[in-house]
Amino acid sequence: MSHIPEEIHLNIGAIIFPNLDQTDFTAPFEVLSRLPNSTFHILWKEKTPVKDVKGLILTPEKTLSQSPPLDLLLVPGGYGQEALMEDETVLSFIREQSVHAKYVFSVCTGALVCGAAGLLKGVRATTHWSAFHLLEYFGAIPVDGRVVIDGKFVSAAGVTAGIDGALRVAALLRGDRVAQEIQLQIQYAPEPPFHSGTPATAPPEILEAARLTSRAITEARLTTAKSIAARLGVVTHESR
């Protein structure tokens, strides 16, 4: 799909919610809010501040019902994603916006929310490594990549992958030159001090510690994913 001429205005919207991981939202915001001739809408069910999982306060500017039709919908993740999986108000909003949106962009476990809305059936997608095994419960085709694009659905892996995904989306919407200008503006040239950013490169003891930290939410997500798979009629390896 060719990028959209700059004379055409873009409406970009992101859902925020209690206990999200703020970087799933703020990192893409840093990129996408710089797109020429665009408006970025920050959305939630109420126009009251919400706290991210570590206590950072974020304030939506519009309710979901006040959102205009969006060219791009951003769905972040974080522990609060679990509460959205059966929230029909949120799921309906995602479904309705996805019909006409040019792209739907999930970051981290935001992919699971999109899956609960029925958007991932037969779609190639990625998510945070701790939830990667859950993608099949939503009918997705799991792809172990930092950013995966399948038609109008763009998914980024965990947290900081949202920057990479947002730059890819920026290029899809406005072209490579604009995306590269934004990358330079934010000086995105990562040189991590350690090589423990993925399960494949992290030392075994670091990986095990991270798994222990996320065990409770991972088990909760699995229970919810199984329930949603039954609702969506998704056949998994367990039910074959």
The residue fraction in helices comes out at 25-40%
How would a crystallographer describe the biggest sheet? 7 strands, mixed
Radius of gyration: 17 Å
Mean pLDDT across all residues, rounded? 97
Query: Which sequence of SSEs, written as H and E, runs from N to C?
Result: EHEEEEEHHEHEEEEHHHH
Count of DSSP helices? 8
Helix/strand structural class:
alpha/beta
Distance between the termini: 37 Å
Query: What percentage of the residues does DSSP assign to strands (E)?
Result: 15-25%
Using the coordinates shown, work out and report the CATH topology.
Rossmann fold
Low-confidence spans = none
3D architecture notes:
The protein has 240 residues and is an alpha/beta fold. It has one domain (10-232): Rossmann fold, CATH 3.40.50. Helices cover 36% and strands 17% of the residues. The protein contains eight helices and eleven strands. Helix 1 runs parallel beside helix 5 (161-174) and helix 5 (161-174) runs antiparallel to helix 6. The longest helix is centred in the last third of the chain and has 18 residues, at 215-232. The termini are far apart. The model has no long low-confidence stretch (mean pLDDT 97).
